[in-house]
Design a protein that fits this description.
Elements: H1 4-10, E1 15-19, E2 22-25, H2 26-42, E3 50-54, H3 59-69, E4 74-77, H4 84-93, E5 98-102, E6 119-123, E7 131-132, H5 133-136, E8 151-152, E9 154-157, E10 163-167, H6 179-188, E11 197-200, H7 207-218, E12 222-225, H8 231-241, E13 245-248, H9 250-257, H10 261-265, E14 274-277, H11 284-294, E15 298-304, E16 307-312, H12 314-319, E17 332-335, E18 348-352, E19 358-359, H13 363-368, E20 370-371, E21 374-375, E22 380-383, E23 389-393, E24 399-401, E25 404-406, H14 408-415, E26 421-431, E27 435-444, H15 453-467, E28 476-479, H16 493-501
Parallel strand pairs: 1-12, 3-4, 3-5, 4-8, 5-6, 6-7, 11-12, 11-13, 13-14, 14-15, 27-28
Antiparallel strand pairs: 1-2, 9-10, 10-19, 15-16, 17-18, 18-22, 20-21, 22-23, 24-25, 26-27
Helix pairs in contact: 1-2, 2-3, 9-11
Domain AMP-dependent synthetase/ligase: 9-353
InterPro entries: AMP-bd_C, AMP-bd_C_sf, AMP-binding_CS, AMP-dep_synth/lig_dom, ANL_N_sf
GO biological process, one term: fatty acid metabolic process
Length: 503
């Protein structure tokens, strides 16, 4: 795999990124990355320092990532759908030396983090005491005199709902060194080295679409970047640009399948070699329909911010419906409730080997995730007799809605701040479009009066929107006076599900 930096030197006119009709070549991309690297060095950033980004889909994400990766810096992409206080927490927690944001998102951070971040940059019109990205990058574009491997530091929610950074140690290596392992992986799933065309239709702040697209950029593919997912736009882009690969979640599949037959039939999808999907369990009927339409090009994988567990081809899934793949038995194992390795047919927590990491500022959580040389993100599954892995639960209480993680404790905490809520439990309920939808079971405070249940739902919804990101808000509210808590004060989520299913 050549790597974007080498392509910028050897094939500078090759298209690297196409977005909204504008093309950035590999030469232009690497030139901008070099400008950023040299600017970071001029500011005094040293190995292990942090650059954070609150970024929309666009060329800047890849410029900043390439710069950090060759400068020995951590890059922290932040979920753009988070509310202002949530963004502020991450920026402070990671101790960012530089924060770069798109102007459209600046109101989430302006006036909140100036005391914490020395260097603040806006892509677009910059407020007072902030630099413009255009001016910030007006620096020498030669290859940095000193280059060393940096790393992404992704944030993943903890069991309390507070995000935690997954930080891997800096290693003494060149920026190109990890690429040697990535090339064979893509070859094994059917993706050749360039000149492929990869469609980016999911948020690049997420580890999966951001990471996959970056790896394919290093392989010489051209990225066609969309600002977001619109089913008809995605399908027509696949057809018009002869897209060879993309990364989606099951919700995207369902939206494509829901398009009118006339739209579907008018688009040529024969160019697609691979459609990666992850982020949530894919309903079997949805996956079969996509296979019938696109052919045997679906590649599912199980992974998390902590690491990759396994990969499943279309052929394997058709032979073993519901599996997420057949992992290397020396690299993945299940740990039963008794603490021992679970045999085939019995459920257990999935543990896997991955590169060393720590949860930033949380040694207890780090230690709890380890079992010898294995680690876990909390998923539960089982093996069949042939060694194929099946997911039984995507963590005990975690809700996966549209491929995005929602932790009940965080939503419950927001609702409990409303004066009309005495107690609350939040669960995920199966949903044909979203995989799961967020449902809140609420016990009202004594004496609290509302005009109607609909009026109360509207008030709670507005309250939650002001506290946390919109994708975390409950899509359904159920009111009860008999709230299911045990004598120990624990919520019975099973009883909450029974209440929800009885509505």
């Amino acid at each position: 795999m050549p790597g974007a930096w080498l392509l910028g030197q050897r094939d500078p006119s090759r298209p690297a990124i196409v977005m909204e009709g504008e093309t950035t070549t590999f030469g232009e991309l690497v030139s901008k990355a070099n400008q950023l690297s040299n600017k970071f060095a001029d500011l005094g950033l040293t190995r292990g320092d942090v650059v954070a980004g609150l970024l929309l889909n666009g060329t800047e994400f890849y410029e900043i990532t390439l710069a950090c990766t060759q400068s020995g810096l951590y890059f922290v992409p932040i979920n753009t759908h988070l509310a202002g206080p949530e963004v502020e927490y991450i920026v402070r927690d990671c101790d960012a030396s530089v924060l770069i944001v798109h102007a459209e998102l600046a109101d989430k951070v302006v006036g909140r983090i100036e005391d914490a971040v020395p260097h603040r940059v806006v892509i677009g019109s910059a407020p007072a005491d902030w630099s413009s990205y255009e001016a910030f990058t007006l620096f020498a574009d030669e290859t940095p005199a000193t280059r060393s491997l940096g790393s992404a530091m992704m944030y993943t929610s903890g069991t309390t709902g507070r995000p935690k950074g997954v930080r891997r140690p800096m290693i003494d290596a060149t920026p190109e060194s990890p690429l040697q392992a990535t090339g064979p992986f893509f070859g094994n799933v059917g993706i050749p080295h360039g000149p492929g065309r990869h469609l980016v239709c999911s948020p690049v702040y997420h580890a999966a679409p951001g990471g996959v697209s970056l790896s394919l950029l290093h392989a010489g593919h051209t990225l066609y970047v969309l600002p977001g997912f619109d089913a008809e736009t995605v399908l027509r882009t696949i057809s018009d640009k002869a897209i060879t690969s993309s990364h989606m979640v099951p919700t995207h599949f369902q939206r494509l399948l829901d398009l009118p037959a006339g739209v579907r039939d008018s688009c040529d999808i024969s160019s697609v070699d691979v459609l990666f999907h992850a982020g949530a369990p894919c309903p079997p009927a949805t996956k079969r329909a996509m296979i019938d339409w696109f052919g045997p090009v679906l590649v599912e994988y199980l992974g998390s911010t902590e690491g990759l567990v396994c990969v499943c081809s279309t052929a394997e899934w058709l032979e073993h419906p519901g599996t997420v793949g057949r992992p290397d038995p020396s690299a993945v194992m299940l740990r039963g409730l008794d603490g021992e390795q679970a045999p085939p047919g019995e459920e257990g927590t999935i543990y896997f080997k991955t590169s060393p990491f720590e949860y930033l500022g949380d040694p207890e959580k780090t230690a709890a995730a380890q079992w010898g040389e294995f680690t876990t993100s909390g998923d539960v599954g089982r093996f069949d007799d042939d060694g194929y892995l099946y997911i039984l639960d995507r963590r005990v209480d975690l809700i996966l809605t549209g491929g995005v993680n929602v932790y009940p404790a965080e939503v419950e905490g927001a609702l409990l701040e409303h004066p009309g809520v005495a107690d609350v439990g939040v669960i995920g309920v199966a949903d044909p479009e979203w995989g799961q939808r967020v449902v809140a079971v609420v016990q009202l405070a004594s004496g609290f009066i509302s005009d109607s249940d609909e009026d109360l739902r509207a008030k709670l919804d507005q309250h939650v929107r002001e506290q946390i990101a919109g994708f975390k808000r409950p899509r359904e509210y159920i009111f009860t006076q008999d709230f299911p808590r045990s004598a120990a004060g624990k919520v019975s989520r099973q009883k909450l599900r029974e209440l929800a299913n009885g509505q």
